[in-house]
Design goal:
Low-confidence stretches of chain B: none
Oligomer: heterodimer
Largest sheet of chain B: 5 strands, mixed, barrel
Structural class of chain B: mainly beta
Shape of chain B: globular
CATH topology of the largest domain in chain A: Peroxisomal Thiolase, Chain A, domain 1
CATH superfamily of the largest domain in chain A: Thiolase/Chalcone synthase
Number of strands of chain B: 8
Radius of gyration of chain B: 16 Å
Low-confidence stretches of chain A: none
Distance between the termini of chain A: 22 Å
Strand content of chain B: 35-45%
Number of domains of chain A: 2
Radius of gyration of chain A: 19 Å
Mean pLDDT of chain B: 93
């Protein structure tokens, strides 16, 4: 297998982007990534698109060919692949693209993640968010994605003493980070008191515990690592990936306080990158809810089970903390365009590892890790990145 | 609006709480599945239907205020992960009580209820919910 590098990264603003269509968002992110890489579109060998549910959100499938066409590549007839794994679609598209370059099949590959969520009513957006859970046996009886995360949180509070104040600290921290990200959906700072008193969604969560419905897209350009310096002054190597699955039904899990798929995926990632959790300088994780950030930090083996809530309250996950988590603002503040999440997390890490995350830069970041999950952890994709210079 | 067959074919399990039992390892599963994840190939042809007792206890719960659109008229409602006496977990609403009465560890038993309705003239969905045992 060849080593693979990221030579270009780009994203759109996240939010309620009423004047942009699905295809416009995808192309805007893709062009930004190509410009960053200094690669002309004629050099692209293949396109990979992560998207969760354009079929219901904009009544459009066949997304690979669509975005290749609007990228101006219809005359080149390049292969284009759409990848779906609920909210983990973006990272999974990246992993598929990584395999294509690592195997030697393609040299220059563009990976995009895009979701257009505000062309439907709020009710329909909720239906789509819930499509990543087991619809026949959990959705049908009244569960939402947030309700399932709430069941995990309640049990985690009981078993490990995690508190609402610790969860609130996650939201406060992510909004503080997002306030420094010009492309974040919500750039306001919030207080712990506001989180604790917010309108309830599914107890113990209030509305300020939960990531929003957002439009947005992100893109990356990959090439073999030995050619990366030809294109980019600051390439970033993908040093480890891990992808694992579990039951999508929460009720069928071994333990609802641990995402076994995350543990399995991150072990694969650390093994491939030949590093240990101590080597990680910055993390982008999947905070569907404030609790989800706490749970995934533990399952990424960065701290022992039950210890991540205290870390959040102590400031250890802040940008100047011991393990900075979600400097982009995370899903909570940066926004949650479903299929774009996993690609956008890596765009942020590329910025961090290049030292270009203005206003929210993690000092001396050399190694970064992203976790993108589907549902409550039915799919987990871990990506580890290292600065190449 | 979905075709009726999608729901009709689940009636046996959903109306009667019928799961499956692996005769190879004695594990019970709900909802029914064709292959035992413990035994994989050795479970072929050995998965037998098994009606659950309907008794269990609350393992975790949440009070839902912002529901799936078809459950809007029911809020606030309690969703619980119920640990059944057979050792299998399942997800269901807990009804016939105030949300604040539900606690982790409380005993519950199954009841047959209306789940939701697809509009005024659409399909009415029935299935299992739970209520607290005195």
């Amino acid at each position: 297998m060849r080593q693979v590098a990221v030579i270009g990264a780009g994203d759109t603003k996240f939010g309620e982007l009423w004047d942009s269509s699905f295809r416009q968002l995808g192309i805007e992110a893709g062009l930004a990534a190509l410009q960053d890489a200094g690669v002309g579109s004629r050099s692209i060998d293949a396109l990979y698109i992560g998207n969760m549910d354009a079929g219901r959100l904009v009544e459009q499938e066949h997304l690979g060919a669509l975005l290749a066409d609007y990228a101006g590549l219809s005359r080149d007839h390049i292969p284009a692949v759409r990848v779906e794994a609920a909210e983990a679609s973006g990272a999974l598209a990246l992993h598929q693209a990584w395999q294509a370059v690592a195997s030697g099949m393609y040299d220059i590959v563009v990976v995009g993640g895009a979701e257009k969520m505000t062309d439907v009513s709020d009710a329909d957006a909720v239906r789509v968010r819930c499509a990543g859970i087991d619809q026949e046996w959990e959705g049908e009886v009244g569960a939402t994605d947030i309700a399932l995360h709430a069941l995990m949180a309640r049990r985690h509070m009981l078993d490990y003493g995690t508190t609402r104040e610790q969860m609130a600290a996650v939201a406060v921290k992510n909004h503080a980070n997002g306030s420094k990200n010009p492309k974040a959906h919500y750039r306001n700072t919030i207080t712990a008191d506001a989180v604790l008193k917010a309108t309830p969604v599914a107890t113990p969560f209030g509305v300020l515990d939960c990531a929003p419905v957002s439009d947005g897209a992100a893109a990356l350009v990959l090439c073999p690592a030995d050619k990366a310096k030809r294109f980019s002054e600051h390439p970033v190597r993908i040093s480890g990936i891990g992808h694992a699955c579990d039951t999508i039904a929460l009720s069928s899990r071994r333990d609802i306080c641990t995402m076994d798929a995350v543990v399995r995926a991150v072990k694969k990632g650390y093994h491939m990158a030949r590093i240990t959790p101590k080597d990680i300088d910055v993390v982008e994780t999947h905070d569907t809810t404030t609790f989800t950030e706490i749970c995934t930090i533990e399952d990424l083996l960065l701290v022992e089970k039950g210890a991540a809530g205290k870390m959040a309250l102590d400031g250890a996950t802040a940008i100047d903390g011991k393990i900075p988590v979600n400097p982009s603002g995370g899903l909570k503040s940066r926004g949650m365009p479903l299929g774009a999440i996993g690609v956008a997390q890596v765009v942020e890490l590329v910025r961090q590892l290049r030292g270009k995350a203005e206003g929210r830069q993690v000092p001396n970041a050399r190694t970064g890790m992203a976790l993108n999950i589907g549902g409550t952890g039915g799919t987990a994709c871990v990506t580890i990145l290292e600065a190449m210079n | 609006m979905t075709a009726t067959a999608r729901f009709w074919r689940e009636f046996p399990a959903r109306y009667n709480l019928i799961g499956v039992h692996c005769e190879n390892c004695n594990q019970t599963y709900f909802p029914p599945r064709g292959i035992c994840p413990n035994c994989t190939r050795k479970s072929f042809g050995k998965m037998r239907s098994r009606k659950l007792s309907g008794e269990g206890e609350v393992f975790s719960y949440t009070v839902v205020h912002d529901p799936h659109p078809e459950y809007e008229l029911q809020v606030p409602y309690v969703m619980a992960l119920v640990k059944m006496t057979e050792g299998v977990n399942l997800l269901a609403q807990v009804v016939d009580c105030e949300p604040k009465e539900v606690e982790v560890g409380k005993k519950v038993k199954v009841c047959f209820r209306k789940l939701r309705q697809e509009g005024e003239s659409g399909i009415i969905h029935y299935g299992f919910k739970f209520k607290l045992v005195e």
